[in-house]
Amino acid sequence: MSKKTELIQSVKGTRDLLPGETGLWQRVEDEARRVFAAYNFREIRTPILEQTALFARSVGTDTDIVTKEMYTFEDRDSEALTLRPEATASVVRAYIEHGLYNEGGIHKLYYFGPMFRRERPQKGRYRQFYQIGAEVLGSDHPTIDAEVLEMLMLLLERLGLKEFKLLINSVGCAKCRPEYLKKLRHALEEVKAQLCADCQRRAHTNPLRVLDCKIEADQPVIERLPHILDHLCPECRQHFECVTTELEERGVAFEIVPRLVRGLDYYTRTTFEITSGLLGAQNALLGGGRYDGLSEMLGGPPAPGFGFAIGQDRLVLTVEESAGIELKPPLDVYVAWMGEAARGPAMRLTRELRREGVSAETSFQQVKLKKSVGLANKLRVRHTVIIGEDEVASGQYQLKDMETGEQKAVDKGQLAAAIKAKQGGTAGPAGEPSPQAE
Ligand SMILES: [Zn+2]
Ligand SMILES: [Zn+2]
User: Fold this and answer.
1) CATH superfamily of 19-176+232-322
2) CATH fold group of domain 333-421
């Protein structure tokens, strides 16, 4: 009786990113780092594991994230721990814990990393998903909102994205929102019988979330509910007007969507989303907003904040479908050698190229010339160096340009320089618009 060993597979809703995909992931991350650095943001890395209370307090106890989606467990010493479902709460916790506010001024922070939510798996959505996010802590000035939105638009432009749209709104503050919520509750009392079961529940627990409902039949009813923009206090109204005016001054296109309230409890004033026509019904590519009371909710000093998180899984998918950026092939040179006498020189040349920052590959064994060229084509290298016995004798190796087919003898000491010179003309991200480009 032979029992086959059962194959262990990855956890449902998680996935492996294989080398064929990671090139694009790295390209997206490199571009984000460049753009964030240009706006004076610096990286912060916080733990994946946090105390459960951090998210219950910040994200909100009536949100889907906290009630249904968190990976929470009891540690061996009975402490309640959670795999972070988002990173803003962690960043603000770190800001408070390390007293960054004592340094004064504003802090511009960005992060990359995996987040965990036990959602129903669907296209572009995973239970371990990745976010690229940024937070500005220490000021409630509307210029911050406008500047961060401008930065985001530049990033998406640099990634070659097409068909994206910035939607913005204001959800008011602790002063004006309760008054609006009272009106909203009142209006909901009259129409809630016509709404879906979730909306009927939210009408009591968290009426703002009704505005988020995606059920088709509910839409005409929700459209007629009072708009928060009509109920802002003078300070919130002025803040929102400053943000929109400054976006116009900066040449950033946007659309005001009074129903945009986002799913998290900690948002105040500006909320926004960027949607992509390429993502179908679940079309939000990223979102964020202002969270002026969050630091206090976590036991910290007043520290207004503004930030966003990009779903990297969806961003990569959209970048792929936009086909607006080109990836450089991973390898520059293939070194082909024929005859035992060429083996040593081939190894030394490969080593020299690699030390010079030219990525190179060679074979362990002798390979016939025709097969070598086929291999080089398969690797999509720009150049092949050919070394046979004659080349070893003369010290002049054959350098073949795989794009043009041109082949010439180059002194072995000059090869790295010759290859780098040719790359100089083509290296670097293709077709980058200048930051001022409209
Ligand atoms: Zn207000
Ligand atoms: Zn509904």
Assistant:
1) Bira Bifunctional Protein; Domain 2 (3.30.930.10)
2) Rossmann fold (3.40.50)
| Domain coordinates in residue numbering, the chain | 19-176+232-322, 333-421
How many Å apart are CA 406 and CA 81, to the nearest integer? 62
The pLDDT value given to residue 429: 40
Q: What is the dihedral of CA 196, 171, 259, 227, to 10 degrees?
A: 90
Sheet containing 407-411, strands listed edge to edge, beginning at the edge strand earlier in sequence: 360-362, 333-337, 383-387, 396-401, 407-411
Q: Could you say which ligand is closest to the alpha carbon of residue 268?
A: 1
- pLDDT grade, residue 4 (50/70/90)? confident
Which ligand is nearest to the Cα of residue 220, counting in written order?
2
Q: What is the pLDDT of residues 283-324, one digit of tens each?
A: 788 999 999 989 999 999 999 999 999 999 989 988 988 877
In the structure, ligand 2 is a single-atom ion and the residues with CB under 5 Å from it are 195-196, 199, 213, 215, 218
CA of 176 to the centre of ligand 1 (A): 4
- Using pLDDT thresholds of 50, 70 and 90, give the confidence band for residue 2: low
Distance 86 CA to ligand 1 centre (A): 26
Is the pTM of the predicted complex or chain greater than 0.85? yes
How much distance in Å is there from the Cα of 306 to the middle of ligand 2? 29
